[in-house]
Amino acid sequence: MRLLRLSDHGGLSLTKHDDDKLPPYAILSHTWGDEDDEVTFDDLKRDDCGRGKAAYDAKLLFCGRQARKDDLLDFWVDTCCIKKESDAELSEALNSMFRWYHESTKCYVYLQDVPALKRDRDSEQPHWEAAFRKSRWFTRGWTLQELIAPRVVEFWSRDGHFLGTKESLEDLIVEITGVPASALRGASPSNFTTNERLRWAAKRETKRPEDKAYCLLGLFDVFIPPIYGEGTHAFVRLQNAIGKAQGSLSRGLHSPRDGGDAGLPLRAEEHVHQQRRRELLASLSFDQMDSRHATINDAQRTTCEWILTHPDYMAWNDWETTSLHQGMLWIVGKPGAGKSTLMKFAHSHAVKSKVEEETVLSFFFNARGNDLEKTTLGMYRSLLFQLLKGVPELESVLDAVDANTTTGTDSSQWMLKTLQNLLSIATRRLGRRQLRLFVDALDECDEQQIRDMVEFFGDLAEDDPENQSRFSICFASRHYPTIDIGDGRRLVLEEDAGHAEDLKKYIQRRLQVGKRKSAGDIHALLQDKANGVFMWVVLVVDILNKEYRQGSVYAVQQRLAEIPSGLSDLFKDLLRRDRTRMGDLLLCLQWILFARRPLTREEFYFAMMAGLDHGVDHSTEWVPKPWDPEEITAEDMRLFVLSSSKGLAELTRSKTAPTVQFIHESVRDFLLKDDGLHDLWPELDGQLATSSHENLKECCSNYLAADLSSCVDPAQELPKASSAEAKTLRQQISVKFPFLKYASNEVLYHANEAAYGIDQTPFLKAFDLQKWIYITNIYEVHNNRRHTRSASVVYLLAENNLSRLVEASNRDDFWRGSPDERYHIPVIAAFANGHRAALQELLGDGGAAFIDGIVEDPGFGKPSQVSPNKDILIWTIEGYNQSLAECFLTLHADRYIYEIGFWKSSNQTALILASRKGATQVVQLLLEQGADVNAQGRKHGNALQAACCYGCTIELVQLLLDSGADVNAQGGECGNALQAASTFGYEEVVQLLLDSGADVNAQGGYCSNALQAASSNGHEEVVQLLRAHGARWPS
């Protein structure tokens, strides 16, 4: 491999290295200009090295100088580092190109067609972004591997301004190129299918047709000798090479120009396809996905059948009339009217009666469930899962998914837009198949999400190029929110005669008052008071049957007269009549209302045990015992759910772990919206949420006292988090102490929520931090996320964005380091995880002026960018996190978070680094804190020289001079500040230095003096300026 190097006099030299003895090097990525402008291998053999060509300064010197800034002496540029006249060398280069880019220390992308303009005050985007999106660099074949292969890629404008890295610009690059984020982050190309890799290159062009195949060699890790002149036959040879590499000869590989899904039907390839599709399909599914549907009671025999002959339903069900109602039917009704039961019946009938070319899907929102049960994200996942399971030939749509978006064991990374796109693609591929959807309980999802979802489905129904109208959807919700469904049909449940007849049937079948004359009057009054609400009838019938079993029909009549209409008033009446064990009821309701997620049956039982008759209400110490399933059975726990909730809660019917929820969403409405909790417990006035979280915090804290010695020896080190031993340990402890995982994960969350009204300082002082760390480390599945014993409370609070607890913590600890922790100090823990609220508390009033700038810093919310081995201040400046650096220096210059002295790994001071980065405000603050303006650094000499080298501004140089910088200080690669400014052609700065007394003939540096530096780098204006001040050529 040939590498370039800038000589001591600013010239270029070319050396050849064995691949196993390569020095660290930078590499250039660019698009070729006119042949006459590019510097070639032959040009470098001439005396002038092609200095007169446009690319000499723009590309070669740019790459060489930037490499020097990054402590790299050698660099590679494709135009001149390959002897193309040698077939052997050309073949080696083309087949090694991907590896060469991959092994580079840094890749600089020079964008000839992107200028760097400052951000407009009125614009959300920098001016260069529009040009960046349209850059020719993103359309060329060879630049695809140059984007993917290198570990570090920096983008630079044509005027030498840094635009960002592959990491910081990731979202934009993914949008422009269609290359998945995981591929940009370093995932092996072999993780992606052949078709995927071909799609990345589909719209890219090369100057010669053969190069469209040759530029893909590295992406497929195959080797073929180039034969220029063979044209598209190169793809035949590429096909054979890929087939051989994958174990079978393939057929049907097409050039990326052909587009589409044409690809490589290899047996090995197909196995990879199928395995990955299975993993992705499995990751769409989630626990409790079907629990709401399963928990809804089936319709009573002969009820709900009226819907099948209702004119609106029949019209919606008729594909021939879809154009009249846009395939939409919206069933609305009061809370508890029976919408979900009707939807379950209609869905079940549609499934049973569907024809071969029809697919029926459903989703039932559940506000009492986990996040996926009550968001459109969960709905899209469920619908896509059902669709692909029901129509397996559509599974190929998953091939378009980023290979590392999710795996079979981690489904947390599915994005809403990805799911919508996949659904759109899948429905378009249905052809003449009919797709019918049932979506229930829209009111149990966020209103804006529902409006966006209805709009999405409306667009989906209209997105039919042949106007086949093969898509229809039935929604059900309360009357609010009001949703515009255009010409769609609307059915009001409680106003329909069929629904009234169902109520009548239910009462006749279930109410036990015999056949006496008064039975008819009782039936009629009961139905009249129901006002069309089925849930009210179900509850009241149960109440009246209990009265009747005591032997008095008059008691039934009297009780019915006393029972109020409306669900909310009914719930209030039920709870006021039974005042026994109200403490149990309150804690039960608090757990269901304020738990961070729905509790499983076992979690709920032991959470309640941790708060009843001990701990919360009594001073006696309580220690949880291991669960004995023979002593406390599943039936015991089910009955406890019913008794503690007084019948207002139930267990979901789940294929996995059943969870505890209210019998209906109207219970939550009664307790919160209708002030039911306040009426029952007026002492909670104004403190409902905080006192509830306080109780739940105490339950968690009590359960953390569990003795785990029967499962693990506390004196022994825990097994590695990802090991089989650790997994077994987690399972054993979860079986014996079912509530421990929730208690450890959420005790601080509940404390933080309680802190809005209750001082948590005593709690934090008494909190057993070491035991909490030990337990959470047991449950942590990633080793690098475990905590050490040196972690402070405030560090953990900052890392988890527990801002109210941060406020209650010891402010002296805010900047105190935890050297063995991932982020070292609390401020960086909050910053790296993107926790603005915690940062605001950590920084206090003094940091308010910086917070908006800090959240715009490139490292905010990016844990992977934190370097554990660097001084914090050095890290912030180096990563262009200037607002954070300014905040450090303004608020805590006297703290121990940094030293203004040397950074041992490269012997440069914070002042030199800030000067090199052009961070004028940071330089100002460092100088105010006493930084030595003339401190020496090995490579960059001093701050003044560094400022004159990189990102040079006249304001920064003037600041350093005004602060006492020695204009003639010697040292560093450029020798002195004047030679540095001359090397990079900063004419204004050269003038300022000369006016400030710079020695125009000072010797030193790799160019000997300033005049030689300016001349070697082609800066004629600077040469004339120096000559005018008496500059002489070095002897």
UniProtKB/TrEMBL annotation:
| Alphabetical UniProt keywords | ANK repeat, Repeat
Q: Where is the NACHT domain?
A: 327-444
Question: Per its UniProt record, what InterPro entries does this chain match?
Answer: Ankyrin_rpt, Ankyrin_rpt-contain_sf, HET, NACHT_NTPase, NPHP3-like_N, P-loop_NTPase
Return the SUPFAM superfamilies for the record.
Answer: Ankyrin repeat (SSF48403), P-loop containing nucleoside triphosphate hydrolases (SSF52540)
Whether Repeat counts among this entry's keywords is: yes
Q: List residue spans for each ANK repeat.
A: 906-938, 973-1005
Q: Which residues cross the membrane?
A: none
Q: Which PROSITE patterns match?
A: ANK_REP_REGION (PS50297), ANK_REPEAT (PS50088), NACHT (PS50837)
In which domain of life is the source organism classified? Eukaryota
Keyword Repeat listed? The answer is yes
Q: Which PANTHER family match?
A: HET DOMAIN-CONTAINING PROTEIN (PTHR10622), NACHT DOMAIN-CONTAINING PROTEIN (PTHR10622:SF13)
Q: Under which name does UniProt file this protein?
A: NACHT domain-containing protein
| Annotated source species | Friedmanniomyces endolithicus
